[in-house]
Design brief:
By secondary structure, the chain is α/β, with parallel strands linked by helices. The protein has helices at residues 3-13, 18-26, 30-48, 87-99, 117-130, 145-153, 168-174, 181-194, 211-224, 250-263, 273-278, 282-288, 301-304, 320-333, 346-353, and strands spanning 51-54, 56-61, 104-109, 135-139, 158-160, 197-204, 228-233, 293-294, 337-338. The chain has a 6-stranded parallel sheet with strand order 2-3-4-5-6-7. The protein has a 3-stranded parallel sheet with strand order 8-1-9, with helices on one face. α1 (3-13) packs parallel to α3 (30-48). The termini are far apart. The structure holds S-adenosylmethionine.
Length: 354
């Protein structure tokens, strides 16, 4: 098939075979990217209008027991400054965010043993009690089924856990031997089964990634049908084993955002901070390629630089209100407005009304 035929098939059938996804990626050029982006943008507007969902990100801990080779807060990075927010600090970030119009709070952090089920359930239920009209999303890594269930019972609505790669060998290149592809997949399956709205995703341009591994990612995502899919460029961090690797490109990230929008028209697709880091207008371009979510930072300014997953991360010096204002202007520039609501995925709303 020609590149155009592949794109038309993807648009019509919301999916390609694994081999066709790889062919589409390998054969891409500027014309293909433009056609894909315009179809994806139309699809975004048809499903979500010009409204962009926002999630307030609270980075609750930079302490992590894991040693992922790409990540700036990996255990072996002795130069990393570690911090952990208290319950009061987390609640106060959320209060501030509420005043700014956020109705979803994402609590993200390293795998920090301090956040036992008891501690985290208490924070989640307090957050829900104070802001019952808000959704709480957790992004705290791999936990047991029992733990995910307890957190869901405490009121957590959503969970973000990027699968990182759908290829087991590639997974082993990105992670130390003590981490396993099978456990990552088990976690995602558990989360879905428990009833969370689930987000998976991967870094674009991670070391060892090929069109074949990306085709596996797209096939996995098509089958798994997440509510959200977070993709952003891999960016090297100076104190990691991947410090000399090349960053993922804007071009491939935008291309894949469009492919994902056409594959799962209703999926929530964030224009990530990493995308904004590799290009000054990265997030705006992400929206124009089919993304429909932004996740500004609500963490206290004093800790922002310490949650350094990769070099030169943006928005580490601004206050939450500044971040919100800045994003509002950026979205307006591409004809969109920031929504003041929970921003549930259409699929999860349908499931709830059954
Ligand atoms: N510990 C939780 C987990 O593993 O899901 C949440 C925090 S983790 C730091 C969040 C995401 O950051 C990872 O899923 C990974 O894809 C992304 N990330 C880490 N290092 C990165 C890098 N160097 N460049 C881009 N993204 C990175």
């Amino acid at each position: 098939m020609t590149e155009r035929e592949l794109i038309e098939k993807l648009d019509r059938e919301h999916g390609l075979s694994e081999a066709e996804y790889a062919e589409l990626i390998d054969g891409r050029d500027e014309g293909a990217a433009e056609l894909l982006a315009s179809l994806a943008s139309e699809k975004r507007k048809a499903v979500f209008g010009n409204s962009i969902y926002t999630r307030g990100l609270i980075e609750i801990s930079s302490i992590c027991k894991n040693n992922c080779l790409y990540c700036g807060i990996r255990r072996d990075n002795r130069q990393a400054e570690r911090y952990r927010l208290s319950k009061e600090e987390i609640l106060s970030c959320a209060d501030e965010g509420y005043g700014l119009g956020f109705r979803t709070f994402v609590l993200q952090g390293g795998e920090d043993a301090f956040f036992t089920d008891e501690v985290l359930c208490d924070i989640v239920s307090e957050l829900k009690k104070k802001h019952p009209d808000c959704a709480v999303t957790l992004s705290m890594g791999e936990r047991s089924h029992e733990s995910y269930k307890a957190l869901h019972d405490a009121g957590a609505d959503r969970y973000l856990l990027r699968h990182e790669t759908a290829d087991p060998e590639h997974y082993a290149m990105l992670h130390p031997a003590e981490m396993s592809f099978d456990n990552r997949m088990r976690c995602l399956k558990d989360l879905k089964e428990i009833g969370y709205q689930v987000g998976c995703g991967f870094m674009v341009g991670s070391p060892g990634q090929t069109s074949a591994t990306l085709a596996k990612d797209l096939t996995f995502i098509k089958e798994f049908k997440p509510d959200m899919c977070g993709i952003g460029p891999f960016i090297p961090h100076r104190n990691t084993p991947f410090k000399d690797e090349t960053a993922g490109t804007l071009e491939l990230t935008l291309f894949l955002l469009s492919v994902l929008r056409l594959t799962l028209p209703e999926v929530l697709l964030p224009a990530t901070t990493a995308l904004g880091t590799i290009h000054p207008q990265g997030r705006e371009k992400g929206i124009l390629a089919g993304a429909n979510v932004v996740m500004p930072n609500l963490s206290p300014v004093g800790v922002r630089k310490k949650y350094e997953l990769y070099d030169n991360k943006i928005c580490t010096g601004e206050e939450s209100a500044q971040c919100r204002g800045c994003l509002e202007a950026r979205m307006k520039a591409v004809g969109c407005t920031l929504a003041v609501d929970r921003g549930d995925s259409p699929a999860s709303l349908k499931a709830r009304s059954l």
